[in-house]
Design brief:
- By secondary structure, the protein is mainly alpha-helical.
- It is 78% helix and 0% strand.
- It has 5 helices and no strands.
- Helix 1 packs antiparallel against helix 3, helix 2 packs parallel to helix 5 and helix 3 runs antiparallel to helix 4.
- The longest helix has 31 residues.
- The protein is elongated, with a radius of gyration of 17 Å.
- The structure holds MU-OXO-diiron.
């Protein structure tokens, strides 16, 4: 059985993962309208992954005798200045998510809830990957600079760089 404190903290994380999914969906849509079809497809995949992150917690909370709450969400931004700015937003967002997961892990220690602690280890590992992916993409964008032909190649590359094996 989950303690009230853990249940509340996990419900907060459900909301953060759902909002992450919306943010990446908005990025996918913006990229698609700008003609960046590779980036759009990467972002659509990313939005799906975040929904899966959310669902995993929903199921876990209910399985442990809590009640997963599906709440309203903060609307994501609708446009982004450039792909580079957009990926910087991704990185900053993932750093924020990592901090939130770390805070959650702290709470599992204080509540002596080792099952939840164990459950969250998947998210700890996932966040290392998510931050690394965003950093690698930003490095690539910095390498190609602001040239149109560079971006054309990058947009083609992005799907092969990170096959959607990331859960
Ligand atoms: Fe589920 Fe990208 O954090």
């Amino acid at each position: 059985m989950l303690s009230k404190k853990i249940e509340t903290a996990l419900n907060k994380q459900i909301r953060i993962e759902a909002e992450s999914s919306q943010i990446y969906l908005s990025m996918a849509s913006w990229s698609e309208t700008k003609g960046f079809s590779g980036i759009a497809s990467f972002m659509y995949d990313h939005a799906d992954e975040e929904r899966m992150h959310m669902l995993k917690i929903v199921k876990y909370v209910n399985e442990r005798g809590g009640h997963a709450i599906i709440s309203d969400l903060v609307a994501p931004p609708v446009s982004f200045d450039s792909p580079k700015k957009m990926f910087e937003t991704v990185l900053n967002h993932e750093i924020f998510v990592s901090k939130s997961i770390n805070d959650l892990v702290d709470i599992t220690f204080s509540e002596k809830d080792y099952a939840s602690h164990n459950f969250l280890q998947w998210y700890v590992a996932e966040q290392i990957e998510e931050e690394a992916t965003a950093r690698t993409i930003i490095d690539k964008i910095n390498l190609i600079g602001d040239t149109k032909s560079g971006f054309y190649m990058f947009d083609k590359d992005i799907m092969t760089m990170f096959p959607s094996d990331q859960e």
